[in-house]
Fold these 2 entries.
Entry 1:
Amino acid sequence: MMINLSQNRNLKLFKLISGIAAQHNQSVYIVGGYVRDLLMKRQAPTDIDFVTEGNGITLAQAVAKEINPNQKVSVFRNYGTAMFRHHGLDLEFVGARKESYAENSRKPSVETGSLEDDQKRRDFTINALAISLNQDAFGELIDPFGGITDIQNKILRTPLEPSQTYSDDPLRMMRAIRFAATLNFSIEDRSLQAIKKEAARISIVSMERVMVEFNKMMLSEKPSIGLKLMEQTGLLQLIIPELTALRGIEEVEGQTHKDNFWHTLEVVDNISRNTDKLWLRWAALLHDIGKAPTKKFVEGTGWTFHGHEFLGSKMVKQLFQRLKLPLGYDLRYVQKMVKLSSRPIALIDDGTSDAALRRLLFDAGEDLEDLFTLCKADITTKNSHKQAKFKKNFEYVALKIKEVEEKDHIRNFQPPISGEEIMGLFNLKPGREIGILKEKVKEAILEGEIANDKTEARTFVIREAATLGLEPSP
Ligand code: CTP
């Protein structure tokens, strides 16, 4: 089968590579994700992989030199690869390899091989397609494992025996699930069985690489597809057991609670319809993790999960550390979302007092909209009457919050009186009284005792300071 590259935006580049490879007496092919996405008419990826039967590093250097004599090429000699950037594309060159296992060693020795040897070593048939750039067959598709048929049938299959492909590189188990989620493909049954069998080997892969795949899955249209596959194969239990701990429904005295695992997956899908923010999706994924350790049946009350948001937000930190996720702003954001995840609902139940609204505004700050997005996604009831009621309640709270914000400007709260001003007022040196007075001002504003205003804050501070035995300096 021939692929028409004449309209391809990279035609000039492909022709150049073709010519240089011919001068070096080397064959050259485009392989991997670029070919897959081209055939699936998906958005062209920003990296293109080339395989050559011969030395990949020298070919990369020759191509780079032709494009720009000063072009820097990154060389990874251990892997026999070299890459450079060109017009926003990452171009990677590798010499075709075959792996052979010495009888008494499990360590593969990498040898030079043919194109087909190289295709065999790849993860899935849809990623093992190659397009020839050789002058006598420019544009010819080479598909020894039926990748095209698999694209048509939307199925992920490995070129070799699945257990071999996965044990060669256990990250591929996560890649299978990521591709199933992002492309909406199914995983061939033999592969699924092999993943179940090999799941524990995921522990030899660095967590950073696992998370790259996990996050791509989380950014797919319907992340529950991938999360369900992870659950089904046992990978989720190994990677995020806090989530699988939410599985199951218990019954005591005829009272049950919902299965918080399946509920969580629904919340993640719901939120993914409204946001592409990775960390907000993570917040949805983790919003209930405190429920497993806090679950209790209380006579007369039923099932309770007292304090699950607080414990959950603490668990988020340990989880981020273990999963090697970013520990700065993103962690704090997810922790905050988990901690506040029940507050807007509680607000509705407790009546929307201005003080409670101001506190929520203060705690959520600039992330209030995101918190509402999370709370709306959290409504998974199938009862349409209840759905409509919850939605209406939310709109009411949102409106009230807007009113309070216009009046009190709490969202990006800046104390109306600064520590320096307080020190000046009483001729004080820095000390604990300043902190106490500032806290009192904040509390008084949130409670609605005084307005968020300098004059009122000043009068209030003078009155409160008196109780600490302080008098304004003359
Ligand atoms: N590959 C593999 N096993 C891996 C990783 C990659 O066999 N664990 C092969 C596949 O042929 C893949 C190619 O290397 O197509 C390039 O890998 P990568 O750039 O990571 O992924 P893509 O398939 O290009 O997909 P995407 O761009 O969506 O990440």
Entry 2:
Amino acid sequence: MKVMAAVKRVVDYNVKVRVKADQTGVDISNVKMSMNPFDEIAVEAATRLKESGHASDVVAVTCGPTQSAETLRTALAIGADRALHIQTDAELQPLAVARLLKAAVERERPQLVILGKQAIDDDAGQTGQLLAALLDWPQATFASAIDIKGDVATVTREVDGGLEVIELDLPAIVTTDLRLNEPRYVTLPNIMKAKKKPVETVTPADLSVDVTPRLKTLKVIEPAVRKAGVRVADFTTLIDKLKNEAKVI
Ligand code: AMP
């Protein structure tokens, strides 16, 4: 079985993002970029399927600028066998990414595509679901366990108030939640080995996909600064302030 993992290059989760002065987006110049954390979990899941004998080939795919190749190298160092870079400098919205991934799926014919449940930059949480709809494949989102037997995947999903276990006929789409696994530490020998693994580069035009944005960002603003709190002397003062100043009770 071939498994595809979708990986996105995003601002590192430790970076405190700053909104650009002209409010058109966040400033990503001179900022550390890394693989989206949920995508590391996706690559780790795909790699474990290979190690347990369920997958024969793991291909990592990214859509993005030249620098996204670094993210693919990380995926190869975790354990992917090959990588596909759909290279573009265009702004990519989830529908465009889903269309590009659909084209990649049609080329590669994987039985399972694993994506993150959300990218921590746009927080859209849409790409996996859109891809499943475009391919007309079953989907299991927010997976905390994946078990493959023959042509069926049993996936445990994190849902409000508990866990849901569902069975999907392959081919299928799975999106990862935090508890699915803990991605391995990427070692230097594996980084060296990754340099020799094949990376194919194509463009959206090669795949005949139109990536024109459908949504327009009107403006991006910082969240309101929280006012400093005050310490009140006693319970009666607290109730009085809540009633008469904050007017919340
Ligand atoms: P989103 O819908 O933007 O929150 O992204 C959900 C998931 O879709 C991510 O965790 C990735 O697995 C995948 N994805 C989103 N954007 C890209 C991209 N540019 N290249 C590859 N995969 C992506």
